[in-house]
């Protein structure tokens, strides 16, 4: 198994004081045994509901990545890293649907915990579907989140993957999920549980005294000694660059655009309810809580996100610029996709983020004012063609 590439820490090293960088490089980033924290004491449904009324929309959309703190150059690292959590068995949750592909020969047993319209969840589904994998889906209640009480992570997506030992390893970051599963598919003799150990969490404490985590090496694929990737080093670096761009830039343009006005926020949440089948999977009062509280709260939160990411009042112009920049890169290659004749992981990452707002007015405006449409629907066609049957 490949050892860690220290270059992968560059994205967070800029947030660590210089004197801590040397210490970071001396840390053994791979624990041979995964650690697992015990479950938290369940909170009452009433208490969770009250909390949901206060911050319902933020969790209601599942766009948990927006609440993840982006540290500054004065942050300092705590000397703590955590391997993936391992469960003896699947949690007692309701599987709401399955995607079954009769041509899937991976041997993987996967369960995806998600919000249907979360851009990070859309990224993972786009990858799983394009890869022709079978998986089960648990649609998490966006406010109460009872189906992930068993997990220390309260963000989605969470992917549980069965290991060779019969236990389930928890994968908790969309880019890490894609990288670890992609690594496995390139060499199926590997154990997904062992691969997951190459993507540990490392903790920081920001200036406000809050501990935050980042996933190491999440844009890197891990190989055995044999060569399983025929691309050049430059092509692999380019793919990682644009995957990171989707996470660090593009995704932060979604919320200020789809919640630009109160009417757009309500329209967006009604679409979320339809595409996520909230009326089927949740009681009416829960569905209404997610829609009405969520829409109002996210309309307000989107204003703060706009300021945080230094966007002008004309938020549409920023997402138009992002779409134009992405298409410009593909046009330089003179290919259908960034990956050439087939979508690569960068294509699927950008597609997944944009797919999260496909039913919103913001996406319709992007189709009318940029050239994103032909590429977007070409990727969508490949994803749907490879996807299994939805049961």
What can you tell me about this protein's structure?
The chain has 391 residues and is an alpha+beta fold. Among the domains are: 84-199, 3-Layer(aba) Sandwich (Glutaredoxin); 231-383, Glutathione S-transferase Yfyf (Class Pi), Chain A, domain 2 (Up-down Bundle), CATH 1.20.1050.10. Helix content is 46%, strand content 11%. It has helices at residues 10-13, 18-26, 45-60, 119-130, 174-186, 192-196, 233-248, 254-258, 262-276, 278-281, 284-308, 315-333, 345-355, 361-369, 372-386; strands at residues 76-82, 86-87, 97-100, 110-114, 135-139, 158-162, 168-171, 201-205, 211-215, 389-390. A 7-stranded mixed β-sheet has the order 2-7-6-4-5-3-10. The protein has a 3-stranded antiparallel β-sheet with strand order 1-8-9, with no helix packed on it. The chain is globular, with a radius of gyration of 20 Å. It comes from Anopheles coluzzii (African malaria mosquito). GO terms for molecular function: prostaglandin-E synthase activity. InterPro entries: GLR_AS, Glutaredoxin, Glutathione-S-Trfase_C_sf, Glutathione_S-Trfase, PGES2, PGES2_C, Thioredoxin-like_sf.
């Amino acid at each position: 198994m490949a050892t860690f590439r220290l270059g992968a820490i560059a994205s967070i090293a800029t947030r660590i004081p210089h004197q801590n960088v040397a210490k970071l490089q001396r840390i053994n980033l791979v624990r041979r045994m995964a650690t697992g924290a015990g479950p938290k004491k369940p909170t009452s449904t009433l208490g969770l509901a009250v909390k949901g009324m206060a911050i319902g929309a933020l969790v209601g959309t599942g766009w948990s990545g927006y609440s993840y703190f982006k540290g500054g150059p004065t942050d300092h690292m705590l000397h703590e890293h955590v391997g993936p959590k391992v469960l003896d068995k699947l949690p007692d949750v309701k599987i709401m649907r399955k995607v079954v592909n009769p041509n899937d020969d991976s041997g993987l047993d996967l369960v995806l915990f998600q919000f249907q319209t979360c851009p990070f969840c859309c990224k993972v589904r786009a990858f799983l579907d394009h890869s022709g994998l079978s998986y089960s889906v648990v649609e998490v209640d966006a406010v109460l989140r009872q189906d992930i009480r068993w997990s220390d992570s309260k963000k989605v997506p969470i992917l549980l993957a069965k290991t060779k030992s019969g236990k389930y390893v928890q994968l908790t970051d969309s880019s890490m999920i894609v990288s670890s599963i992609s690594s496995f598919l390139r060499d199926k003799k590997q154990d997904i549980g062992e691969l997951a150990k190459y993507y540990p969490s490392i903790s920081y404490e920001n200036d406000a005294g809050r501990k935050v985590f980042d996933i190491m090496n999440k844009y890197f694929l891990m190989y055995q000694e044999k060569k399983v990737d025929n691309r050049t080093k430059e092509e692999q670096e380019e793919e990682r660059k644009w995957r990171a761009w989707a996470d660090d830039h593009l995704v932060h343009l979604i919320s200020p655009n789809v919640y630009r006005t109160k009417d757009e926020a309500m329209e967006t949440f009604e679409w979320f309810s339809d595409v996520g089948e909230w009326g089927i999977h949740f009681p009416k009062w829960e569905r209404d809580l997610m829609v009405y509280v969520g829409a109002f709260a996210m309309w307000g939160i989107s204003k703060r996100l706009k300021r945080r990411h230094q966007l002008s009042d004309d938020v549409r112009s920023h997402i138009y610029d992002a779409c134009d920049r992405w298409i410009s890169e593909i046009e330089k290659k003179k290919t259908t996709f960034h990956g050439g004749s087939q979508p690569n992981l960068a294509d699927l990452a950008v597609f997944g983020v944009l797919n999260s707002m496909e039913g919103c007015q913001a996406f319709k405006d992007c189709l009318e004012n940029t050239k994103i449409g032909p590429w977007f629907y070409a990727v969508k066609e490949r994803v749907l063609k490879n996807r299994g049957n939805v049961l």
